Amino acid sequence: MAKKKKKLKIIPLGGMGEIGKNITLFEYDEDIFVVDCGVAFPEDDMLGIDLVIPDVTYLSKNIEKVRGIVVTHGHEDHIGALPYILKDLKVPVYGTKLTLGLIEQKLEEHGILNDVELRVVKPSDVVSLGCFKVEFIRSTHSIADSVALAIQTPVGTVIHTGDFKIDYTPIQGEAMDLARLAELGNKGVLLLMSDSTNVERPGYTMSERTVGEAFEEIFMNAKRRILVATFASNVHRIQQIVNAAVKFDRKIAICGRSMINVAKVAMNLGYLDMPEGILIDIDQISKYPEEKLVIITTGSQGEPMSALARMAAGDHKKVDIVPGDLVIISASPIPGNEKTISKVINELFRKGAEVIYESLAEIHVSGHACQEELKLIYSLIKPKFFMPVHGEFRHLKRHANLIHELGMPTENIFIMDIGRVMELTEDSARINGSVTSGRVLVDGLGVGDVGNIVLRDRKHLSQDGLIVIVITIEGDTGNVVAGPDVISRGFVYVRESEDLIEQIREVSRLALQRCEDKRKNDWSTKKSIIRDALRDYLYEKTKRRPMILPIIMEV
């Protein structure tokens, strides 16, 4: 019999059809390695959920094959799930210096730093992971030390761009290594996996340096205190704020835990140049004149517990917004966050601050490639097959159409779903089968203990409230000793709805009486009959469906 031909399997466990939660597996024979391992932020209907991480059941089942995790850069949607995954998956993690510095801090918070092997790489390094060789290629993004990956596999070369834009004048380091990508393209590339986040925008993404020019102009004309909100991980942006503050002789205070943590790591590793004496503690701001202060803060997405949101609401312990403050929100809204940002902006205006946000000035540029940059990367690499990655379905579809317009046959373009398996040989590619995948919800210290049923109950409680019916019966005779007592939470206020509460008691009494008449004495049947009777009655009276919990106690 002919020996069955082995295939390269590529399995996205996140980052397809969604923003965030990026993680992709590469598998060939007895070897697996992972690219990125990020979080997504909860959707509006995920009540009480802190984070969403990928389901890595497939990795856990094949733990003996996993050779390592390779990380392209240090954003939360690429590294945020590592502390949760690495508790069970004890494999080495490869990344550049700043990326691993940020990961190290996370692992330390979770108490597992000593259990994980972190291996620092730099652009042009090549690491062997079983039968794979992974080359790190210098890239540019909105965080320093980003890399693309050239993955040498037994069936050919796969290039994974990671998140990128083509910035010819980056704030730090050199421009993206387009020459190496072109060189690999000339040798022949089997598959290109390319970032799709900004595919809907025509043209080119502006250089990060344009933001620095906008900051300088704003700082030059500002008469009072300046507050700048941006993403904590955008070290380049923080550097430009520092540069403008130095130029106009202002002191800098940093506010927000994640911002302080990232700034500390970036300064220690040499990615953030903070001149001596310019940084002051947030507790010291009252000692300096307002026109000499810049406060860099978190909260550019309007997150309810972030420093800027608390300042806007007037309950921040260290900073009060006062009339004349200039607040710069240097970020664009992540889809879905528009309302919360708008609310914060309105509150800031209400407190007398002047607010500059993205639509008013060039104070933010994206970290992702627009259409012309995506076309350039494709044209340099000239792959046999193409897979758009990192984006909602509309982004993946637009990217697929864009590449088709450049001449790639539709049958060579693959839009993947989370958990689907792509199989590649030297001259063929197809989607074949799927593995266990999905999302795991993190709520406080609980990981995965909140599922769809708990979320459904939370939603039910949030919309219609809860009614508890407490009845005490005599064990021997079954006679009602006390109750029914009615406790209402989030349904009606008992003191203002005494008639309704009395009717609820009466319906409960009659339902219990029916149980006695029909000799249905087991508790679960009694509870079910009471629940059904109340559900129908309350819907008829109020057109609401509260959660109903009958409690029967025996004495």
Question: Could you give a quick summary of the protein structure above?
Answer:
This protein has 555 residues and is α/β, with parallel strands linked by helices. Helix 6 (209-221) runs parallel beside helix 7, helix 9 (307-313) packs across helix 10 and helix 14 (498-517) runs antiparallel to helix 15 (523-542). The mean pLDDT is 87.
Outline the structure in words.
- With 555 residues, this protein is of the alpha/beta class.
- It has an eight-stranded mixed beta sheet. The protein has a six-stranded mixed beta sheet with strand order 8-9-10-11-12-19.
- Helix 4 (97-109) crosses helix 8 and helix 14 runs antiparallel to helix 15 (523-542).
- The protein starts with 7 loop residues before the first strand and ends with a strand.
Assembly status: single chain
Roughly what percent helix?
A: 25-40%
Largest sheet report: 8 strands, mixed
The rough form would be described as globular
Cα end-to-end separation: 76 Å
Estimated radius of gyration: 29 Å
Low-confidence stretches: none
What share of the residues does DSSP label as strand, in percent? 15-25%
Computed structural class: alpha/beta
Number of helices: 15
Mean pLDDT over all positions: 87
